[in-house]
């Protein structure tokens, strides 16, 4: 018998107690159970807020896992990681969603008895703080600290329990010192390099702008000046070097939960079916500009599928928007333009290719020959985003024509066979695309084998590639081996059907193509000029930012020694704002002579410090490792600590980071692994990428302007603008200030309490789905349920305080029913938590609440009722930590069973299914596409029916009238039977109609539905019409 709570009642109570403003402004009334030992009748806002004030310290203080039934060691650790926020100063609803999800998971795992790591920190570098600091004339460091303080309070108010002793902030010199150290390691491994790239340059502010700081008209957001495209020397991290390994790592069974993210990453990386040859850029003397901004000395990665033909390259082609093609204001000038007409043998049509020859050239890394560069958009570039067209004068008629027109040297390295060889290779790779196996991939496998296997003990070497995937690499990582080493005797054989010998090819001369490919990759590797597999379109990671609020790149430019890394013992290279002796704040470090002037660590001469800072993606590519050893002053982290806690078990964050951040983090983990600093090559096991929160936004139809909700009259349909009556369109869009559709979490919590906000955020949608925030609609069921829970506990307390009722007949049967509900709820809710589907867990708990409330009065005195109520509260505690803590306190004071006497719900173990409980299967029957039956059946009954669909159907039809009606005595035409052990369900789909009848039936059903809907609408509008 359930107690029906009319929504009107609680709404009235609610309204009566609504405070005027501010969440914690109302005076404490000392009316809650924790203080008075009296259970208040209603859960008013004031009461809920007092409960939250009372319990907040307890709920957010560090707790240990206390599952007495299992040893922590036996269960192990759970590393629950939420993406750390940028300290903007205010939490937004997206944060609330992410941190509520991670907090509820961490609490769930803790209750299960795991040793849970649930850290938090701050992605604290970046432009907004820098700009705010300049505007307010404060230091970005002070500004950031202030924001962090405020957001920390908000996170605590939200009831999130983090390991605050692990807190890191990336702008802390004790953090960025190690970011710099990691950069030095990349530099020493040859994975950090400098080359020219375009930037947006503001000529008034003399600074570089991010793309989003340039408006549609190409003007700077602050100065309003016309932004110039300018070439600057930029630092890159050569992540393409590991791209084949990162691509390969996506096959790891460890990432099976990544689902579509694996596909996204795969596409991002691309097929690693070619190789990189780094080529040095040369400018002639006239072309050389200022000392810093020249192309001289930089190198460019050239992708080629045929590295064995390296000496046969006659020219490289680039598109007109490429850095090397820059015309205006650059050292490059047009020498001449020619139109070439040639005849393609296969299509017999004219190919025109107009091009100009750049003054810039590159050097062939093998032969040392100069390779000209031509600029043309008409070249047949490799599909995808490949930067370079590789031209072989002997390779095709087009290339030959271009060589003739441009007067380029043609080296036929295969003595008349180049054309045929390239064709065969192209065809082979097309074929292999179809077959899914190709020689390149086999070669890559060899390369990886030799890479990982080199210098290791023979057992490991033999199966190195396999071991790499299988995560058994831990023993070998003890050796601090250089990245991608190549052994002299490692055989990377490639079988080619057509395998001619090479001529005029420097060290490759006389080798067959297959042997030459192996050799050239080795040579390139030895010379630090590439030689590794890569995809055609993946680019290296540009990490330079010309800003002052980021980790300085620890390099010194010396006129005689070139780019020299700052010695590790001199780190950190401190930012001016962390040094009282320097002026601040500034947009660029370049304008601070005290910062730039230094001595060369190598020769001691006067040198200039690098003024670029690192992209914040570098900071965030390894923060999850620093959490595990945040105070370490000797190293970024201690390997043993990291090995024990990694990989991350669940990574919760915004879906927008699916590609970039996750790719960089995977790259960094793999790099640190290759340096012998960690055992694990993949950082994250499971991903829980959280969808966006959207909300209705109002757009004026006439000009597309976003209006404030207050300015819109929604009482008419369609809505109109107040005052003008202009028609307004309602659009559901991502929350944003500019669209006036954002809600501040602090305001929501003030109106509905923090736990209700947590519940509302989790309840409606699966974490991965986008959701639309409709405040009143979302909170109505939430507040009603809280009200019912409050009443339920109140009733329990009241019943136990009064005299115990006599056991009456029928109680045992009622207890048995309740026991079934409890076991089923525990089984299902646990599974939903484990699957990170808190919204279905919540729905199940709502149903379970109804089952508990429908127990007869006399059953409330029994042990089963107590067990059921305990299970409900325990499973709710991760979601509503404050409220359930209060409810549990009262419950524990009146519980009879000894193990419920503990007062702190967050110290309690997770409820378990009774050992003698036979789990039921949920049985669904669909007849002619109508859901006809849903019920439970014990395993014993299903076994008695031998799990046979016809016997099951017969049994159910005999017992249930709805099924008899649906079957209407018709024979079964066809049926399907699905058994899911994971979900403990049996699905039976039955058809008694043929396809034609089925279509006719669907049509009838659709019409009937339409009619019903229309009728309901009519009834509703009649009800809501004001009485006049
Ligand atoms: Zn020097």
Architecture blueprint of SSEs:
Elements: H1 7-17, H2 33-36, H3 45-60, H4 72-75, E1 77-82, H5 93-112, E2 115-117, E3 119-122, H6 127-136, H7 140-157, E4 163-169, H8 173-188, E5 192-202, E6 207-209, E7 228-237, H9 243-249, H10 260-269, E8 274-282, E9 299-304, E10 313-318, E11 337-343, E12 350-363, E13 370-375, E14 389-392, H11 397-406, H12 418-435, H13 439-453, H14 458-462, H15 464-469, H16 513-526, E15 530-534, E16 541-542, E17 544-545, E18 555-558, E19 562-565, H17 593-596, E20 597-599, E21 606-609, E22 613-614, H18 616-619, H19 623-626, H20 639-645, E23 648-654, H21 660-674, E24 684-690, E25 693-700, E26 706-707, E27 712-713, E28 720-721, E29 728-734, H22 745-752, H23 754-763, E30 771-772, H24 775-801, H25 811-834, H26 838-853, H27 863-876, H28 881-894, E31 920-927, E32 930-938, H29 939-944, H30 949-959, H31 961-967, E33 974-980, E34 985-991, H32 995-1024
Parallel strand pairs: 1-2, 1-23, 3-4, 10-13, 23-24, 25-30, 31-34
Antiparallel strand pairs: 5-6, 5-7, 7-16, 8-9, 8-12, 8-15, 10-14, 11-12, 12-13, 17-22, 18-19, 18-21, 20-21, 25-26, 25-29, 27-28, 31-32, 33-34
């Amino acid at each position: 018998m359930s107690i029906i709570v009319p929504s009107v009642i609680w709404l009235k109570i609610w309204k009566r107690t609504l405070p005027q403003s501010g969440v914690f402004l109302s005076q404490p009334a000392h009316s809650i159970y924790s203080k008075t030992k009296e259970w208040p009748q209603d859960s008013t806002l004031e009461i809920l807020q007092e409960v939250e004030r009372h319990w907040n310290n307890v709920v957010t203080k560090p707790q240990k896992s206390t599952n007495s039934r299992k040893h922590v060691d036996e269960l192990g650790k759970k590393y629950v990681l939420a993406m750390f926020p940028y300290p903007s100063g205010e939490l937004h609803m997206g944060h609330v969603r992410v941190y509520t999800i991670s907090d509820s998971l961490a609490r769930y795992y803790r209750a299960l008895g795991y040793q849970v790591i649930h850290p938090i920190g701050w992605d604290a570098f970046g432009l907004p703080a820098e700009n705010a600091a300049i505007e307010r004339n404060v230091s970005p460091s002070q500004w950031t600290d202030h924001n962090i303080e405020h957001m920390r309070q908000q996170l605590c108010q939200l009831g999130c329990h983090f390991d605050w002793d692990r807190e890191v902030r990336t702008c802390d010199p004790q953090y960025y010192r190690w970011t710099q150290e990691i950069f030095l390691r990349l530099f020493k491994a040859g994975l950090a390099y400098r080359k020219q790239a375009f930037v947006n340059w503001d000529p008034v502010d003399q600074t570089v702008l991010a793309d989003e700081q340039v408006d549609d008209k190409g003007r700077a957001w602050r100065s309003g000046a016309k932004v110039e495209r300018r070439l600057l020397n930029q630092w890159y991290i050569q992540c393409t070097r590991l791209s084949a390994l990162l691509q390969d790592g996506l096959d790891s069974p460890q990432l099976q939960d990544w689902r579509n993210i694996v596909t996204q990453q795969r596409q991002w990386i691309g097929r690693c079916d070619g190789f990189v040859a780094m080529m040095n850029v040369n400018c002639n003397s006239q072309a050389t500009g200022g000392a810093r901004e020249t192309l001289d000395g930089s190198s460019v990665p050239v992708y080629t599928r045929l590295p064995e033909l390296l000496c046969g390259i006659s020219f490289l082609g680039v598109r007109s928007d490429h850095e090397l093609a820059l015309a205006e204001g650059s050292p490059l000038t047009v020498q001449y333009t020619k139109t070439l007409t040639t005849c393609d043998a296969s299509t017999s049509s004219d190919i025109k290719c107009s091009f100009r020859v750049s003054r810039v050239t590159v050097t062939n890394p093998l032969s040392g020959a100069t390779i000209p560069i031509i600029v043309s958009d008409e070249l047949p570039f490799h599909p995808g985003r490949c930067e370079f067209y590789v031209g072989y004068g002997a390779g095709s008629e087009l290339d030959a024509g271009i060589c003739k027109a441009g007067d380029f040297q043609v080296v036929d390295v295969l003595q008349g066979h180049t054309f045929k060889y390239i064709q065969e290779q192209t065809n082979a790779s097309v074929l292999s695309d179809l077959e899914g196996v190709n020689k390149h991939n086999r070669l890559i496998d060899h390369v990886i084998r030799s890479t990982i296997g080199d210098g290791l003990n023979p057992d490991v070497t033999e199966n190195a590639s396999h071991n790499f995937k299988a995560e058994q690499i831990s023993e070998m990582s003890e050796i601090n081996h250089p990245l991608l080493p190549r052994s002299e005797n490692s055989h990377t054989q490639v079988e080619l059907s057509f395998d001619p010998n090479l001529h005029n090819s420097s060290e490759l001369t006389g080798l067959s193509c297959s042997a030459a490919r192996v050799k050239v990759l080795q040579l390139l590797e030895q010379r630090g000029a590439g030689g590794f597999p890569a995809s055609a379109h993946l680019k290296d990671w540009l990490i330079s930012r010309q800003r002052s609020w980021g980790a300085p790149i620890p390099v010194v430019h010396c006129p005689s020694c070139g780019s020299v890394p700052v010695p590790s013992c001199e780190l950190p290279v401190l930012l001016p704002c962390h040094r009282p002796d320097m002026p601040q704040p500034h947009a660029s470090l370049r304008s601070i002579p005290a910062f730039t002037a230094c001595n060369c660590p190598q020769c001691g001469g006067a040198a200039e410090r690098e003024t670029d800072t690192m992209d914040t993606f570098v900071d965030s590519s390894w923060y999850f490792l620093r959490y595990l050893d945040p105070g370490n002053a000797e190293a970024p982290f201690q390997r043993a600590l990291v090995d024990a806690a990694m990989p991350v078990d669940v990574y919760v964050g915004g879906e927008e980071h699916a590609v970039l951040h996750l790719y960089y983090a995977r790259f960094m983990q793999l790099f640190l692994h290759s340096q012998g600093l960690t055992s694990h090559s993949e950082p994250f096991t499971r991903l829980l990428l959280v969808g966006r929160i959207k909300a209705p936004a109002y757009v004026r139809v006439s000009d597309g302007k976003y209006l404030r909700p207050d300015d819109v009259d929604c009482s008419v349909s369609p809505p109109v603008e107040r005052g003008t009556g202009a028609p307004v369109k309602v659009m559901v869009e991502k929350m944003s200030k500019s669209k006036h559709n954002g809600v501040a979490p602090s305001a929501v919590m003030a109106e509905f309490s923090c736990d209700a906000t947590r519940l509302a955020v989790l309840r409606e949608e699966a974490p991965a789905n986008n959701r639309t925030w409709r405040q009143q609609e979302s909170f109505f069921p939430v507040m009603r349920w809280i009200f019912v829970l409050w009443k339920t506990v109140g009733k329990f307390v009241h019943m136990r305080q009064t005299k115990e009722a006599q056991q009456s007949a029928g109680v045992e049967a009622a207890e048995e029913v309740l026991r079934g509900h409890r076991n089923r709820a525990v089984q299902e809710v646990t599974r939903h938590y484990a699957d990170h589907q808190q919204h279905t867990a919540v729905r199940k708990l709502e149903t379970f609440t109804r089952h508990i409330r429908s127990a007869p009065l006399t059953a409330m005195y029994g042990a089963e009722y107590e067990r059921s109520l305990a299970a409900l509260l325990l499973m709710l505690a991760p979601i509503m930590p404050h409220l359930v803590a209060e409810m549990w306190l009262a419950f524990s004071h009146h519980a009879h069973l000894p193990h419920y006497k503990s007062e702190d719900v967050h110290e309690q173990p997770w409820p378990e299914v009774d050992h003698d409980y036979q789990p039921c299967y949920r049985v669904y029957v669909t007849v002619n596409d109508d859901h006809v039956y849903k019920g439970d059946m014990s395993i014993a009954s299903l076994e008695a029916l031998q799990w046979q669909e016809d016997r099951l159907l017969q049994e159910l039809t005999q017992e249930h009238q709805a099924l008899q009606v649906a079957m209407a005595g018709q024979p079964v035409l066809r049926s399907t039977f699905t058994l899911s052990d994971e979900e403990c369900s049996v699905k039976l789909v039955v058809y008694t109609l043929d396809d034609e009848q089925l279509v006719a039936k669907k049509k009838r059903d659709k019409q009937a539905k339409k009619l019903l809907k229309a009728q309901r609408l009519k009834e509703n509008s009649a009800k809501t019409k004001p009485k006049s």
